[in-house]
Amino acid sequence: MHVLISGAGIAGPTLAWWLAKTGARITIVEKAHSLLSHGQNIDISGSARTIIKKMGLRDKILELNTTEKGAQFIDTDGRPFASFPVREGGAAASLTSEWEILRGDLASVFYEATKDFPNVEYVFGTTISKVVSNDNTSVKVEFSNGQTQEYDLLVAADGQWSKVRKQCFPPEAITVIDKNMYVGYWTIPRLPVDNEYWNIYQALGSRMVTTRPDPHGTIRAMVSRMPCNAAQKKAWQDASKSDGQTQQDLLKKEFADAGWQAHRLLDAMDQAPDFYFQAIQQIKMTTWSNSRVICLGDTAFAPTPLTGMGTSLAIIGAYVLAGELSKLDENEHPAQALEAYEKKFRPFVEEVQVIPSFIPGVAHPMTAWKIWLFQVVVRVFALLASSSWVVKWFGKNDDDEDFKLPLYPGWESVSGQGVDREKGVGASESNGLSGI
């Protein structure tokens, strides 16, 4: 099988790792000219951890832990009033996990684990400009350099606003659910006064300012807001569709009086190499596949950062998709595997995508008395979380599988050992892709 994957983030390289076990030839195209080292904290939990252990990558990921010791809510003077230190195995008692890692670092782990496989090829600085055809015989694409190539399968793993998905699925197949929340992320220089906690500060007007440590000697900053009226909503919505400078100007205006370290973050924003602004929105699709094209990760089912499950879903989805593809007979149309994959995985995805109606509003109080009330409640939670027996009885162990992983023939005996980097697994002598 000759597979083309669009996107070298999390889902694409994970899929490539498992597909390499089947002897498939895999090409991953990525619009960036190199791996992006940027990105904020992400958490890996449940069955995704089991998959990473099968891949033999657990120790590497733990080595790149963000160094975050926990989360704490602070007042306008930076004094913590509720603390949730890391507890091994259970983020239920802490907002931070021992598997906390930066997105860029995780992407690098998966890239390093697959780049030397003889049947896997990465092509950077290249995108799919056009899906020429998608039929019973093959899927034919035209690349940004003008060349065309045919494949047995095209996997769209190019993110929440996938251009491949837009070409291959009608608008009515895609639903965007807006959560009325906007976020800005960027990296700032670390100061001696910075600690190893995720510091969370709530400002008046449904605003939040946070800082988090990373393992690279810098601090990851984030601000978020839920618009309080129609005029604010329009301003933030327009900014989300505009350029970076417009977005930065809006943040400087809207957070100038927020308090705590808002001015420090805003002053460093212009020099940040990784400024990113987004509207928090879910993606839901009526179907994830169309003949020989399949959507994966955020492209198919972006759950939003509010669930804390986007990365885990991408990893689990890649594993299950590769497993179903591995069951195909030679020259068999992939549609059967794609349908089986969706049948098995969609119920879990839909369960994860259910977000309680009070989220994210509960974390963005608009008035002083609502902030006070939130502080009272979170103090109680912090007190309960400090009790080991409460955690034991009510806490969830993040190592427990939340999705029952199917077993695929031939994988269990070699899981964790990777693919022979000299011979591959049924790899062909050449990918035949040097022209791309």
UniProtKB/TrEMBL annotation:
Pfam families: FAD_binding_3 (PF01494). Keywords: FAD, Flavoprotein, Oxidoreductase. Residues 2-352 form the FAD-binding domain. The keyword Membrane does not apply. InterPro entries: FAD-bd, FAD/NAD-bd_sf, FAD_aromatic-hydroxylase. GO terms for molecular function: FAD binding; oxidoreductase activity. This is FAD/NAD(P)-binding domain-containing protein. It comes from Cucurbitaria berberidis CBS 394.84.
